[in-house]
Specification:
By secondary structure, this protein is mainly alpha-helical. Helices cover 66% and strands 8% of the residues. The chain has five helices and three strands. A hairpin with a 2-residue loop joins strand 2 and strand 3. Helix 1 packs antiparallel against helix 2, helix 1 packs antiparallel against helix 4 and helix 4 runs antiparallel to helix 5.
């Protein structure tokens, strides 16, 4: 793995650890993970192969990413504090995130350190036409996991009741009453 791959993989893992501490749901909550996966997609997603069973592989991993993302979003706590929404990733959400992101890292390390022949045999047996199909499948899995998790959190945040804003009342003098 290159230094850039290590940095992006670790950054994606750290995104959820940042949310283990409760914090405000704001634009950064959405932009940081989206920016990281956009960079990964731009860097590694040259093409989406469609030969053989490439789309089956890609579709399967995208579905896994969607399931992990939705479940991770469901298991993220959202509450109000004053006028702000706060979120906190729970243990289940963090576990799912690490499972998804960690599985991609583990697969990449495994293929580079002895598992490449096994993947090649699997690819031939299952009519997966190129290494780029694996790259596309894992990149799109990560992208889908991030987008569905954030979309789930956003949709859930719309349903959280907010505290009413207290309006200060100023007593109005009754003109009929004279001091």
């Amino acid at each position: 793995m290159t230094t850039t791959e290590w940095i992006t993989d670790i950054a994606l893992l750290l995104v959820v650890f940042r949310q283990l501490r409760e914090g405000r749901l704001d634009l950064k909550t959405f932009l940081i993970p989206l920016g990281i996966v956009a960079f990964v997609a731009w860097s590694y997603l040259d093409t989406i192969p469609t030969g053989g069973n490439d789309l089956v592989l890609i579709g399967t991993l995208v579905a896994v990413g969607a399931a992990l993302g939705i479940a991770g979003g469901v298991y993220t706590r959202i509450r109000t504090s004053g006028e702000h929404l706060l979120i906190k990733a729970g243990a289940v959400s963090a576990t799912l995130w690490v499972l998804g992101m960690g599985a991609r890292m583990a697969f990449q390390l495994w293929t580079q350190h002895g598992g490449g022949d096994t993947v090649a045999r699997f690819s031939i047996t299952h009519h997966i036409t190129s290494d780029q199909a694996w790259v596309a499948a894992f990149v799109l899995m990560a992208l889908t996991e991030v987008v569905t998790r954030l979309a789930t959190i956003y949709l859930r945040s719309l349903r959280v009741p907010t505290a009413p804003v207290a309006v200060a009342t100023v007593p109005v003098a009754d003109p009929a009453v004279r001091p």
